Amino acid sequence: MTGTDLTAKRSDVYCTPSEADALHAHALASHLAWIEADLADARSKAQVLATLAAACGFPAGFGHNWDALADSLRDFSWRPAGGYVLRLRNSAAAQRALSAEWNTLLDVLREAARDWKARDKPFFVFVDDAKLPAWPPDVSEKPHKVPISVLVVVHTADGKVLMIERADRPGFWQSVTGSQDAGETLRETAVRELFEETGIDASRHDLVDWGKKNVYEIYPHWRYRYAPGITHNTEHVFGLEVPELTEITLAPREHVAYAWLPWRDAAEKAFSWSNAEAIREVPQRIAAARGTPPGT
Fold it and tell me: Residue 176, SS3?
């Protein structure tokens, strides 16, 4: 597949690539509707919805809320085409203004893409100035994810914790995490995820199984990655102490930024309750490893 191959299999939400003009030409040649919405002046949810409604030509009864947007993006009966490509231009100010609701918008767009994909019809969203997966994607066939994962809290001796920001969920920060592959032990999963997500070689440090596990409900918008009927995941927690100046190499398709934070700030920043809970154990884990009371 090429960088202009807009087939239904690739339908999703992406950061606008440098070859946007080539994508535009290919979309038109493939009889896909190319829709552009300029968010430069949108500073509120209402303005974003109004801009999208005007660009997409939503019917007069459009409800100007997230549910109405979700319904309309799954319809387009008023604009028949072989598929749809929506480009959101100049999104930076709107992202800042909407804050957490920007993620709601992205969820609506992703759900629309999945719905059209299930109907074998292309639906793409390209967002300018956004921290999103890069185009073109890797669409090789992958097995369903196993509902068993590891969480690795990477920290320094003085309690600073490594946090990494997800590429597909701007503003969502976490520790190293990932699902177990078939045939792996939990330790092997932790070692692999550490290297893939941060470039850290666990063999050079002391990777410790904390003997702690959490069972949590998988977010609905991520359940498509698992076998049908799977709704919960079991997470096993590890810790890894490293020198503070350890070099971090992110996998850009998965994470876009990292930060070393004091453990309290890191726990506050973590979007997952189980991640935050694990980070709050860092002082006790450091103390236990050294045989000293916490805080001494």
Answer: strand
- Domain check: are 64 and 173 in the same one? no
Residue type, 258: Y
Q: What is the pLDDT of residues 82-139, one digit of tens each?
A: 999 999 999 999 999 998 899 899 999 999 999 999 899 999 999 999 988 889 876 5
Report the chain's terminal Cα–Cα distance, integer Å.
58
Structure tokens at 62: 């459009």
Paired strand residues for 261: 161
The answer to whether the peptide bond before residue 122 is cis (omega within 30 degrees of 0) is no
Across the chain, the runs of DSSP E, i.e. the strands, are: 13-15, 33-38, 84-89, 123-127, 148-155, 160-166, 173-174, 176-179, 206-217, 232-241, 255-262
pTM greater than 0.85: no
Query: What is the CATH classification number for the domain harbouring 42?
Result: 3.30.370.10
* Residue 152, φ and ψ in degrees, nearest 5: -115, 115
Element of type H or E holding 247? none
Pairing of strands 206-217, 160-166: unpaired
- Looking up tokens 């063999």, which residue turns up? 203
Which amino acid does the sequence have at 28? L
User: Cα separation of 267 and 199, whole Å?
Assistant: 22
Q: What is the pLDDT of residues 105-119, one digit of tens each?
A: 999 999 999 999 989
Q: Say yes or no: 215 and 281 in one domain.
A: yes
* CA 201 to the chain's CA centroid: 24
Identify which of 69, 51, 168 has the alpha carbon closest to the alpha carbon of residue 115: 69
Q: Is residue 159 part of a domain?
A: yes
Question: For residue 1, what pLDDT band results from cuts at 50, 70 and 90?
Answer: very low
